[in-house]
Amino acid sequence: MNAPFAVRDLRLRYGKFLLDVPSLAGEPGTVIGLVGRNGAGKSTLLQLLGGLLQPDAGDVRTFGLDPWRDPVAARRRVGWMSDDMPIWAMRLDRLLDSLRGFYPRWDPALVAVLLDKLELDPTRHVAELSKGENTRVRLLVTLAFKPDLVLLDEPATGLDVPARRALLDLVLGVVRDGERTVILASHQVDDVERVADRILLLEGGRITADGTAAEVAEGAPNLEERLAGARR
Amino acid sequence: MSVSFSTIVRPILAVARAELRQLAARPIQLVGLLLLAGTPGWFLCFVHFEGPADVLMRAWPHLAAMGLGGYLRGMPTRPGGGRAGEALPGLPVAPWQRIAARVLVAEVLLLGVTAAVGLGMHAAVGAAPPTNPFAGAGVAPGALVATLAPKAVLWAPLAAVGASGERRLAIERLAVAVVVAANVSLSRADETVPSALYASALATLVVVGLARKRGRPDDWRRRGASLDRLSLDLKAALAAGGAAILALGSVLLTEWSLGGAPDLRTRLYAVGGTAAAVLLAAPVLPPTARGALPEAEASFRLPVDRLRLTLASVGASLRRAIALLAVLATVVLWARVATGPLAGRGDLALSDQGNISAFLLCAAAAAGAFASLSGKRWGLLPHAVGLCALAAVLLLLGVAFGARPQVVWIGMDVSLVAVAAVAVAWSAGWLGRSPRALG
After folding, report:
1. How far apart are CA A57 and CA A20, in angstroms?
2. Domains in chain A, ordered, with CATH?
């Protein structure tokens, strides 16, 4: 069985920034936290895994597929969500109806459950939604087709602490079944620490620590302090 | 790479469906698009009145192709710079499939509207639709080329998938150049003067467009160096002059190639059309700033820049007034045709040509005006089309007050060329961004 994701000799340059990941792989059923300061390369790495960016060199695979060259097959198993992800401006029920055509595994029953849990009114227009509701819509769209790999890029920015926790708990409630893999990139270190089985620390485009929260903290009082001393 | 119906066709249909849904959710844009798509169909119905055959074969809707080409350009296609701007990033769809879906939508709109109008016009006069849709279409080689050529503009974004920046622009401009060449062919195969005029306007824009060192006003503003800007201004002015000569020459050559010496009207067409094209090309010369040029800079600039400033400073309220006038004029003209004996076209107050031009102008102006009112993402198009509409309205007023038909013909055709030129320029991205709201 193919690993949820595997990266080898990955390089991508943006001006002076260089993302350089010699090797990285994920196991099914794990929640991986991706932490690092602004500009460390968290979003870039997620976008490469989601097939949204093409690497300059190296190999990226999700479930054995190249997400850049084979976006249709690869993305059908990968849910990608970011806080600034644009959404088509239309009524929510029509949006969901439009999206289901893309995913053979779209699950209407799960959509109904998520609509209820996320307290979203399907008759409302996306443009009328608040920031928090928009975030919940993105989450719904990301989870509705039961992705095997979920990439969450700052999924809960702008939400207060209880809302953030509720959101993450909901995500984990849906995807934590021992088979699905989640990568969560976030500045909210306490969130990551709370839910992640494994944490990757990115500094200057390189993964400088990979392990549990305690292992990544490396002698610092906690993960947050370790991150405060990290390079960009 | 997995290849199956599910991975190839299904995503295209899903995107097309979502596109149509999005259009339906934006009725103003949809109306504008349909006006643009349908206008050439109406044009042909009125000119030749041989039904959908003409619509399909004689002159595949140039304006619509251009306008829809602009619509297609709204798709983000650049893998090199990431897929930023991709609506709902992460959807299981390849860039080429997104473009293919837009082409599908565009073709459906184009065919649907033109065929519906053509058949409707037949029904209105009680004539049977042609059993052979190509009967009587006059499939001369030149006409055929001209028929297919605007497709180049329509499909250029598809060809440009994967290309980035300059290369993509080059592909799109090449497509426009193909249209120019085809229109010259058309001018040999069919009506001489209007076609040659059209060709001249297109040639003008292509030359002016190619003279630009960098692709877009935004790029230009980023570059910013004033010395560079001046040198590009000079280049652009020279290019405009060269284009004018080229345009005039194309008209005269076309006329001579058909064995006749150009008469006074032809010369007037050539001069007027070229002037209009150059005038309209002016706002798209390099440092187009959409009103953002500082006053102090303006005094150092060539006259063409002052013209740009003037164009760019046309206010929203004036545009709205023009939009209303254009819509009103369109409605009045349509009403006149609808209530008059169509087959006997001579009953109309204007000549056929004047009528057609007026229809085309007003519809295009209305589309531009709708676009103007529906958002700010359409660059200079509303300004330019608004000015054309103003010209049309003034000419219609001239008719109302008894101006001679010849004057109206010429004025209308000059304005028509101007609108065509604007449509091409817009399609090629020289008037700022195409509508990206749907992307």
Report:
1. 10
2. 5-228 (3.40.50.300)
User: Of the candidates A71, A80, A89, which has its C-beta nearest B93's C-beta?
Assistant: A71
- The answer on pLDDT for B318 being more than 70 is no
Task: Determine which of A69-83, A167-181, B103-117, B260-274 has the lowest per-residue pLDDT on average.
Answer: B260-274
Q: Is the dihedral of CA A203, A207, A209, A213 positive or negative?
A: positive
In a domain? residue B184: no
- Residue to mutate among B10, B28, B91, with most A CBs inside 10 A, is B91
Report the C-alpha gap between A106 and A83 in whole angstroms.
22
- Whether residues B198 and B246 share a domain: the answer is yes
Identify residues of B whose CB sits under 8 angstroms from chain A CBs.
1-2, 6-8, 10-11, 13-14, 17-18, 21-22, 25, 79-80, 82-83, 85-94, 97
pLDDT greater at residue B125 or residue B5: B5
Same domain, B225 and B239: yes
Q: Residue B336 corresponds to which tokens in the numbers above?
A: 């006149």
Q: What single-letter amino acid sits at A183?
A: I
A163 CB within 8 Å of a chain B CB: no
Which one of A150-164, A178-192, B58-72, B218-232 scores highest in mean pLDDT? A178-192
Which residues in A lie closer than 8 A to residue B87 (C-beta atoms)?
Answer: 86-88
Please check whether residue A178 touches B, CB under 8 A.
Answer: no
Contact A72 B17 (CB under 8 A): no
Q: Which residue, of B258, B281, B313, is where some domain finishes?
A: B313
Assess whether B287 and B160 both reside in one domain: no
Query: Measured between beta carbons, which residues in chain B are less than 8 angstroms from residue A101?
Result: 10, 13-14, 17-18
What is the β-pairing status of strands A198-203 and A181-185?
Answer: unpaired
CB A33 within 8 A of CB A192: yes
DSSP string, B202-242: HHHHHHHHHH-SSS-HHHHHHH--HHHHHHHHHHHHHHHHH
Is the separation of the CB atoms in A203 and A20 below 8 Å?
no
Structure tokens belonging to residue B347: 């009953």
Cβ-based contacts of B22 with chain A (< 8 Å) = 88-90
User: What pLDDT is attached to residue B102?
Assistant: 74
Q: pLDDT of B63-119, one tens digit each? A: 455 445 555 555 443 332 233 334 567 888 887 787 778 777 776 776 666 566 656
Q: What is the pLDDT of residue A189?
A: 87
Helices B165-189 and B226-257, interaxial angle, to 10°?
20
Q: Give the domain extent around B321.
A: 315-428
ipTM above 0.90, yes or no: no
Nearest chain B residue to A93, by CA:
B21
Q: Are residues B211 and B243 in the same domain?
A: yes
User: What does the block give as tokens for A200?
Assistant: 């990757």
CB contact under 8 A, A89 and B25: yes
B7 and B97, same domain (yes or no):
yes
Cβ neighbours of residue B381 under 8 Å, at least 6 residues apart?
Answer: B368, B371, B372, B422, B426, B431, B432
Q: Does A80 contact B at CB distance below 8 Å?
A: yes
Closest residue, chain A, to B97 (C-alpha): A72
Please indicate whether, in this complex, the C-beta atoms of B90 and A80 are within 8 angstroms of each other.
yes
The number of folded domains in chain B is: 3
Q: Considering the domain boundaries, does residue B176 fall inside one?
A: no
Residue at B185 is within a domain: no
Minimum CA–CA partner of B438 in chain A: A88
> Is residue B433 a part of any domain in this protein?
no
Instruction: Give the residue with greater pLDDT, A58 vs B57.
Output: A58
Q: Does B240 share its domain with B280?
A: yes
User: B288 CA to chain A: closest CA distance, Å?
Assistant: 28
